[in-house]
Specification:
CATH class of the largest domain: Alpha Beta
Pfam families: Formyl_trans_N (PF00551)
GO biological process, one term: 'de novo' IMP biosynthetic process
Number of strands: 7
Family: Belongs to the GART family.
Strand content: 15-25%
Number of helices: 7
CATH topology of the largest domain: Rossmann fold
Keywords: Purine biosynthesis, Transferase
EC number: 2.1.2.2
Order of helices and strands: EHEHEHHEHEHEEH
């Protein structure tokens, strides 16, 4: 039976599209995208999913959970963020939504233990795409940081990885690692384009590797 893949997104959804296309052409043969969940109501990835006939859901941190809470009120925002994570786990674990695999494909928010623990308890693996090599440039703006390090002569190799998601950000076990050479004669836009092309291949390979273990 085809495994259910739930994809978490926050933006354009080009990596989601790579997964959708791979399911359609048989490159991913053991699973299908059962639902797409976005942290942003304006994410173009929602349109990509709808065009493919895939159910969507918006779980909006800023427009719902942070609504009315000023940035200065860090304690209330922290509490709201934990509620966001708890509610997301509860939604995904509903019988009608429950997936076999969760893929973070451009999900731009940290998933805390309040989300990860309930999923782990149900043996639902979560993998993430990160545009850097293992141990390098964890967290946000990894593409820009890697590019600048390359231009400064600090690194000669960069790349992308697909890794298991754990509480420590971008530190889970790598499933797929793909390297690319740093070029000092290219712009940030050119480097970003090369990274994205590599991501589209890596995320399909990562999904297949994760599905093999189910």
């Amino acid at each position: 039976m085809s495994k259910r893949i739930l994809v978490l997104i926050s933006g354009n959804g080009s990596n989601l599209q790579a997964i959708i296309d791979a399911c359609a052409d048989g490159t991913i043969s053991a699973g299908h995208v059962s639902q797409v969940v976005s942290s942003s109501p304006g994410a173009y990835g929602l349109t990509r999913a709808e065009k493919a006939g895939i159910p969507t859901y918006v779980h909006d941190l800023y427009g719902t959970y942070y609504k009315g809470i000023p940035k200065e009120d860090k304690a209330s925002r922290k509490q709201a963020r934990e509620s966001f994570n708890e509610d997301l786990a509860s939604y995904i674990l509903k019988p009608e939504n429950r997936p076999d695999l969760i893929v973070c494909a451009g999900w731009m928010l940290i998933l805390s233990a309040n989300f990860l623990t309930p999923l782990a308890d149900q043996n639902i693996p979560i993998i993430n795409l990160h545009p850097a090599l293992p141990g390098a440039f964890a967290g946000i703006n990894a593409i820009e940081r890697a590019y600048q390090a390359g231009q400064n002569g600090e690194i000669t190799k960069a790349g992308v990885m697909i890794h298991k998601v754990i509480v420590q950000v971008d530190e889970g076990e790598p499933l797929v690692v793909k390297e690319l050479d740093v070029r000092k004669d290219e712009s940030l836009d050119q480097y970003t384009e090369r990274v994205h092309a590599l991501e589209h291949t890596a995320i399909v390979e990562g999904a297949n590797k994760a599905l093999e273990t189910l």
